[in-house]
From TrEMBL:
Annotated ranges, domain TonB-dependent receptor plug: 147-220
GO cellular component, one term: cell outer membrane
Superkingdom of the source species: Bacteria
Domain Outer membrane protein beta-barrel: 372-778
PANTHER family (UniProt xref): PLUG DOMAIN-CONTAINING PROTEIN (PTHR40980), TONB-DEPENDENT RECEPTOR-LIKE BETA-BARREL DOMAIN-CONTAINING PROTEIN (PTHR40980:SF4)
Keyword Signal attached: no
Organism whose genome encodes this protein: Cyclobacterium lianum
This protein's name: Outer membrane receptor proteins, mostly Fe transport
Cellular compartments annotated: Cell outer membrane
Length: 780
């Protein structure tokens, strides 16, 4: 289906639904009364009065009190919750059975300044919730996330692993579709810039249905930013300071009435770190061994701002959501290299490369959302138009010291410079409609267009002694432009009975990819159509136990930077490059699980299987003594395993939640070479103990262990670490002071090895991970 046709359908659908918009302010019985202040007896004007159905967040009907404190509101007969809201007064709620016209006469509100007896409300808000669709993470319930970023949250999330460079794997599979507020965004290219304090919750969907993009092998991670849901004015502020001058401060505030909601949040982050990396590679044919050691220091200063508004009129909501991000990063990486003969240990060559790098990132994401609600809460219509932009400008100044391992000014004998100007654009328009067919069944349909552009302009220069100036190297410099369009339509049918629920869906996606390498004039276009069925079922054995079964077919398209064939030669002996011949992966994913939910605990058990055709993986090839790391399509891969996620209140003051995931992986890359066939068993576990102590203290101990895991060549070694956190609450839990120690025993590092017919290689990388943080936060 051509893009213009899909856009025409979107316009027609939007027009039809907007033409049928209505305003329903419930009719039926009237409810009257007068509002006064308890301390003075004075009438209270401008109080917001609303009727809610129990368990629902949107009012059935609402009004304001007049200058004399009188209010009048009407709604159909039934059971309601009547709520009153006025800044400076405690919120009040009454249970109302509206079976006729009623007059409540006088209702009093209490000023927040009055002395009241202390009321303590205790609730068990679990940090992780498991349901038929996946997991929901509440970051605020894990003290290890204080002062951190999105990646810190994911490191403490069941089934998720985060690599040294921030890459995410889910149940051993890479390739996740990361969304912001349910939308694709260019800002997700740098997840370590999204602060934990700005995140309301994270949803992880391992086997998403046809409503979601079919993109990504492992599933969907949806980041929901804070915007404020409760009526009134609310906010929170957080300040964190840690070792090596690390700092993170943020504030979020929202004001919501029955007619509108406005919200904003700001975060400042300064993060400093040091690290080292060691690599050893032996090339069998040359009988030589290369040893490399890298020392690094870096500092990142970033600002994040999220903001928006919702306006409610009748059964309609219009919303705007924006997110702005800017950061400056500076790094110094010093690489020491030695190449020696194996038999004699004679030095073949040695050199030092010192790379002083600065990077400026700016990004902006905005969305306009229209939502139409109906009297039937199972019916809805939603249209979203969004656009995001990200610009990264990087400067690298590389000093080269050949034939020495002493990087002093007198030994400097080479200089190089590199400039990277990278821009990303993502534009989306989508419409979703849900309508019940009966009391048990409903149908959902939608369309979506996703248009992306990636423009990477890379200029590499070398210093020429004879002219005393830098000259562009055309063999390395390049400009790579990537464009794609993904146009989709889906339909889902759902049915629910007291014992059995099921959802069956089908999604169709048309993909058009256009790449252009400017300096060679090489253009490449791809065009294809895929169908993606999905199935989700839930069988309710009893009130506590359920069984679930789900299946989905998915796709993982190669990213722009993987397709760019030009090399990154920051290290001339270890080169990283893309592959313009990559094809998308096609995935079949199956999951069977058991959900057990009790009053103070829950246990989820999942069996999962995933088969991938055309597995995308990085392989290392050695040519003329130089190693090239590049992505390649392997024949197949498959993984299968089991996952346990448990949460329980052992006592009123001790909560435990943990997970255990074990899986077998098999990779067949015999199309690349016989040494690219590998298989192995891997497992990981995460455990968090939370203790509520006397005098407002709480304590958490968080442990993570990830076993060794195979790759197409070799394996990554096991890693483990423990975090500890203590918090003291003040002012009826509105304020808190926390102390966090990450990686108490300084054990977290990344290491691995590879063995092929032509070479062996091992690496060890260690960042500064033992960090002490002090945080203060206040909720108002």
């Amino acid at each position: 289906m051509k893009p213009t046709v899909l856009f025409s359908i979107a316009v027609v659908l939007t027009g039809v639904f907007f033409a049928n918009l209505g305003f329903s302010q419930g009719e039926g019985y009237s409810l009257r009364g007068k509002l006064t202040a308890e301390d003075s007896g004075d009438p209270l004007p401008f109080v917001q009065v609303a009727l809610f159905k129990p368990g629902e967040s949107r009012p059935v009907s609402f009004s304001d009190s007049d200058d004399n404190g009188n209010f009048s509101i009407s709604a159909p007969g039934g059971e309601y919750l009547l709520r009153f809201f006025l800044i400076g007064y405690d919120e009040k709620e009454l249970e109302i059975n509206l079976n006729g016209n009623k007059n409540l006469e006088t209702v009093t509100l209490i000023s927040e300044n009055q002395d009241l007896e202390e009321v303590v409300v205790q609730s068990s808000k679990f940090p992780i919730r498991s349901d038929a669709e996946g997991l929901t993470i509440n970051p605020s319930q894990n003290l290890s996330n204080l002062g951190g970023t999105l990646l810190d949250i994911l490191r403490n999330t069941p089934s998720v692993s985060v690599s040294e460079d921030g890459a995410i794997t889910l149940r051993g599979s890479s390739g996740t579709n990361v969304l912001i507020n349910g939308r694709n965004s260019s800002l997700t290219q740098n997840l370590d810039q999204i602060p934990a304090s700005a995140i309301e919750q994270i949803k992880i969907i391992n086997n998403p249905n046809a409503r979601y993009d079919a993109e990504a092998e492992a599933g969907v991670i949806d980041i929901v930013l804070k915007k404020g849901e409760n009526l009134g004015t609310h906010g929170n502020a957080e300040l964190t300071y840690g070792t090596r001058g690390r700092a993170n401060t943020g504030i979020n505030i929202n004001h919501r009435t029955l007619r509108y909601n406005v919200f904003a949040g700001y975060n400042f982050r300064r993060w400093r770190s040091i690290g080292e990396r060691r690599t050893e590679r032996e090339i069998f044919e040359d009988e030589e061994t290369l040893t490399q050691n890298t020392n690094s220091t870096d500092e990142n200063i970033g600002h994040n701002l999220n903001f928006g508004a919702d306006y409610y009129f009748g059964d309609n909501i219009i919303s705007y959501e924006g997110f702005f991000q800017t950061s400056d990063d500076s790094q110094v990486n010093t690489l020491f290299s030695e190449l020696r003969q194996n038999e004699t240990n004679d030095l073949v060559l040695d050199y030092v490369r010192r790379n002083r790098e600065t990077e400026a990132d700016d990004g902006f994401d905005n969305a306009l959302i229209y939502e139409r609600t109906f009297d039937n809460k199972d019916k809805s219509f939603k249209v979203v138009a969004s656009n995001s932009y990200r610009n990264q400008y990087k400067i690298q100044n590389i000093d080269i010291y050949r034939n020495t391992l002493d990087p002093t000014p007198e030994n400097l004998n080479g200089m190089e410079r590199a400039f990277t100007d990278e821009k990303r654009y993502v534009s989306i328009i989508q419409a979703d409609y849900i309508s019940p067919l009966s009391s048990d069944a409903k149908i959902e349909a939608g369309i979506k267009s996703n248009i992306r552009k990636f423009d990477n302009d890379y200029i590499y220069t070398r210093f020429q002694e004879n002219i005393q100036d830098f000259v562009v190297d055309p063999n390395v410099s390049n400009r790579f432009i990537y464009k794609d369009q993904i146009h989709a339509a889906y339909m889902i049918y759902s049915n629910s009975t007291p014992k059995f629920d099921y959802t069956v869906g089908l999604r169709g996606e048309y993909t058009f990819v256009d790449t252009f390498l400017e300096n060679t004039g090489e253009a490449n276009q791809q065009e294809y159509v895929n169908l993606f069925p999905s199935l989700q079922t839930l069988y309710k054995i009893d009130e506590e136990n359920s069984l679930k079964l789900s299946y989905s077919r998915r796709i993982d398209r190669p990213t722009a930077w993987r397709l760019n064939p030009f090399p990154d030669i920051t290290d001339s002996l270890s080169v990283r490059r893309g592959n313009s011949n990559l094809q998308p992966e096609l995935i079949h994913s199956l999951e069977f699980g058991h959900l057990a939910n009790f009053e103070n605990s829950s246990l989820t058990t999942n069996l999962f299987y995933r088969h991938v055709d055309g597995q995308l993986d990085f392989v290392t090839l050695v040519e003329d003594g130089i190693s090239y790391s590049q992505p390649a399509n392997l024949n197949t891969s498959e993984s299968y395993g089991v996952e346990f996620i448990g949460i329980t209140d052992i006592t009123p003051w001790w909560n435990v939640n943990g997970s255990f995931t074990a899986f077998q992986i098999r990779v067949d890359g015999s199309n690349v070479g016989e040494e690219f066939v590998n298989q192995g068993f891997a497992w990981n576990t995460k455990l968090m103990n939370s203790f509520t102590l006397p005098m407002g203290f709480s304590f958490q101990l968080v442990g993570n262990y990830e076993s060794a895991e195979i790759e197409a060549q070799g394996r990554d070694l096991a890693q483990y670490y423990i975090d500890a956190n203590v918090q003291k609450s003040f002012w009826e839990n509105k304020g808190a002071l926390s102390l966090s120690i990450r990686d108490i025993f300084d054990t977290r590092r990344f290491a691995g090895n590879a063995l092929t017919n032509t070479f062996r290689q091992s690496f060890y990388a260690k960042r500064e991970t033992r960090i002490v943080m002090i945080s203060a936060k206040y909720r108002f």
